[in-house]
Amino acid sequence: MMRLKTAALLLLSVAALPANAAPPAGFEKEVEALRQKVGTPGVAIAIVENGKTTMAKGWGVRQVGSTSPVDADTTFQTGSTGKAVTAAALAILVDEGRIRWDDPVIKHMPWFRMYDPWVTREMTIRDLLVHRSGLGLGQGDLMMVPRTRLTRRQTVERVAYLKPRTSFRSAYAYDNVLYAVAGQLIEEVTGQRWEDFVRTRVLRAGGMNTATTDSPERFTVANRSYPHARLSGPLRGLGPIQLLDERDELGRNAAPAGGLTFSANDEAAWLKIQLNGGALPDGKALFSKAQHAEMWKPVTVMPLPQLPESLKLAQPTYQSYALGWQVQDYRGHKLISHGGGVLGSITRVVLIPEKNVGFTIMMNSEDSGLLLGLTYRMIDHYLGMPDNGWIDKWESWYQSRLEGGRQALAAMQAGKQAGDTKAAALPADRYAGRYRDAWYGDVVVDSDARGLTVDFTSSPNMAGRLTHWAYNSFITDFDDKSLEKAIITFAIDDNGKVTGVTMKPANPIADFSWDYHDLDLKPVEGGK
Fold first, then answer.
1. Average pLDDT of span 203-230
2. C-alpha–C-alpha distance, residues 498 and 426, integer Å
């Protein structure tokens, strides 16, 4: 889920590894020096080679301003890397004969609906996991980001109102909401919440003893990291690091898409299971080799990223999505990987099947340049190649991306200030009203002596004031400064009546989970 998604969508790769190779010489000191240079509070890394843990270690602190150290048992929010755990839970049910990957979803959830009745009939369990449903990138994420009042069942019911962007199975577009459907399906089949089934049948059974599946459980772990971000600059990612409210994370309704926490020791156990075809250290199987192969089998072709010249070495020749995993190449070698991000934390899991090696990097900040740089630093080391300067190259790319976003935002503001700022067509109170989108719910605009206010009612504490932008457009000034601002535009008919409301993120490089652009709000008659 959120996934940040920059790290989640950019491809990372690895290649051949000499057996039992150690991490780079001086690696622990290098990580600490980089962590301090970038300003990331905490980092944890797990490395597994040939069935053995060769590193499970932490650097830095769990929370900025504290002295509590990150160690091998400190838990981190791991975002969309948890999609593979949801897939594993389904694989267990396939092994038990309770479901099949290509069962129609409505076989197990007769009440489930997609927007198109034909797609409803044809949508399979496999389709839920591989991002080919026809939904747009991140469509429906506002039902869970930044937080929600919706239950998982309510979220799944609202999928019926998400209008597709492409035809069914014709294109790749990453989503989170259908993993919420997968989690609900597990409950429908087993009678257990996704949280309970995953905790007992995957995490604890797999030796991941500190990993947690939902928010209340996460807060019982004393040795946990806290989320951090940079919010005081003109856009997210700029400014000094600051602590976020740890209880404002991805909505629990979408936890099957990315609501797990892991420690480095937990990640080491998970990497071993993956590299051993689903087998546990005692020889028993968490899931069968057949299902393990099924989960790593490419299904949906992904578009290739267009990397700058400095990063061309990282360009793949193929890239596909499997069941909770991304499959791609790096210099002719197969990589199984996934990134993850929620507000304030990012993660990358990388597996090199041909060399029986895997590693995970977790951070309690959104500093994607450091995550990417460290990953490729490890990649080249395990390839037996000299240091390619990936640390500096990825950090430079990340900073240039932020600078590009800052310049685009400044240009947009300058254009507005240059004359595109005609006064609003209506008095403030004429914009007030209750506006409803079928999948999200209600957004309420009100007026007082100071002007207009806005409240996204399905999302707790997502409220604030509206400032006039241009013509019939306003920009949000949320009370919670960690939220991405939206530009809200009112459609007015020739009688001066509001007929609809559309939105878009004000930040040109906002994470795709801020899918304001997918809202189609209509006035609710008599509603306030």
1. 93
2. 9
